[in-house]
Amino acid sequence: MHTWSPSVSSGIANVPWYPERASQRVPEQVFEGHETQVRCVCFHPDENKLVSGSDDGTLRVWDRATGSAEVLSGHTDWVCDVDVSRDGELVVSASDDNTVRIWDRKLGETLHVFEGHENYVISVQFSADSRRVVSGSGDETARVWSVETGELAFEPIKCHGRVYCVSYSPDGDRIASGADSIQIWNAETGSGLLSIRNSKVVSLAWTTNGTHVIGGGRGKVTIWNSHNGEQLRTWQAHSSVATIKLSLSPSGSHLVTRGWNDKTAFVFDVSTGEQVAAIQHDEDVYGIVYSPSGQFIGTGCDDGRVYLWKAPILGGPSANLSPASSFLSFLDVCTHLSVLIIPRSLMVIIQRSTATCNSAGGTATKRRSSSRPPGLSQDFHASRSARLIVSPADPQQSRGHVLQPIRGSHSTRRAEQSPKRDTSTRRCRSGNR
């Protein structure tokens, strides 16, 4: 099995949670047919269809025009996750029956059954070219499969605990897995590239430019640099005991989340961590996803229904910015304050002197350059000087660093970095709820 190497520590920078902002919205469409809770939802690329997976063991392909559904049967236990290929021809599903299935969407037939996981499969995703599928399981491995042959592309990847989520990077060269820690792997070889300590998540998403990963943990959403593991921001999205599932808008500007045992989904501005909208349901929300255009949000609930919502139309300059640009804009706004309090982890971005006008001669001092996380390439300009106060967080917890590959057994080199796994829950209940 592939095991893993470098590691990064992360810090904390909290943004407040505003549960009182919840408001009633009316769904565009409601689809009924599953016999029990809907655990996962995914859009067809043209958004005319949705695919859902349920604890009743079936997938359903919903036609938005007619409201009818085609039932895909074959799994013998809960369906924990679904994904649709970019061309819309194939569907992949993960199940508590320890298998991954590839379906021909038009024929409604199973093309392949991938067997090999030794425990429930919680997460699946197609590669961008639809030639491969990555799966994450309770057996503590991520596996990459050939869609054509059904064979493993390389040996199983050994992760830090039960794998709740897996995701290809936008350019397809890396895979992120979420377990007791986030780990990033070479998508072609399965070799380890990065591990982030203290980063247990049950869901994650890549930003549109691939420079950051966003993870949902217990009550909090956190953003990390995907190249060096530096933590950029974390905020409270749901109650502290709720495990969070999330989906990033295609523009990368907003994030929709749901918490375990929570009837409300929230939409957040990624650049600030501010809650900007809420979607209230009558029952607990499980599956949640943005549509490819960003115009809709799909949810699957405890009542066995699939809901289609109009995504909030959010104005403001951050709506059209990339995540990296939005983050820099956030810092730019902050520099207008006379005092700026930031975590030590952000000092790498603003450790430079900006050109300041000399009140007497009108001359300017030269700026001193410094390193910046990959992807944050724009210059940081302060329109007026700001007094910087570094938060008193433990430097070892707030400063990211990449270690060299360590040789030796997996259990030896990771023992000090992997927190003890919670074994009180089982199956995909913990990952998707």
From TrEMBL:
Designated name of the protein: WD40 repeat-like protein
UniProt KW DNA repair keyword: no
A Pfam match: WD40
Residues in WD repeats: 31-72, 72-113, 114-155, 278-310
Chain intervals with Basic and acidic residues compositional bias: 413-425
Organism for this UniProt entry: Paxillus rubicundulus Ve08.2h10
Listed SUPFAM superfamilies: WD40 repeat-like
Keyword DNA damage attributed: no
